[in-house]
C-alpha cells in the first residue's frame, strides 16, 4: 500500500474534512446503527410473513 501525502485516501477517517467534530461522528455512527437495526427488523418481518 503506497499512500502519498498529496492524495486523499477515501478509506481514511475524515477524508472530506481534516477534523470532524466528535458529536458529528457520534451522530453518523448512531444513524448507521439505526439503519442496520431497521434492516434487521425488516428481514424479521419478511421472515415471519413467509411462515
Task: Give a brief description.
By secondary structure, the protein is an all-alpha fold. 57% of the residues lie in helices and 0% in strands.
Describe the protein's architecture and organization:
There is one protein chain. The protein is mainly α and 51 residues long. The chain has a domain at 22-51. Helices cover 57% and strands 0% of the residues. It is rod-shaped. 0% of the residues are buried. The mean pLDDT is 78.
Short key terms for the protein model shown above:
RP9 pre-mRNA splicing factor; 51 residues; mainly alpha
Helix content: 55-70%
Order of helices and strands: H
Largest sheet: none
Please work out how many helical segments DSSP would assign.
1
Uncertain stretches: none
Rounded mean pLDDT is: 78
Question: Helix and strand layout, with pairings?
Answer:
Blueprint: H1 22-50
Region (Disordered): 1-51
Protein name: RP9 pre-mRNA splicing factor
Biased composition (Basic and acidic residues): 1-10, 17-29
Amino acid at each position: 500500500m503506497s499512500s502519498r501525502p498529496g492524495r486523499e485516501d477515501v478509506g481514511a477517517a475524515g477524508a472530506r474534512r481534516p477534523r470532524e467534530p466528535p458529536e458529528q461522528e457520534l451522530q453518523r455512527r448512531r444513524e448507521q446503527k439505526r439503519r442496520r437495526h431497521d434492516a434487521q427488523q425488516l428481514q424479521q418481518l419478511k421472515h415471519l410473513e413467509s411462515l
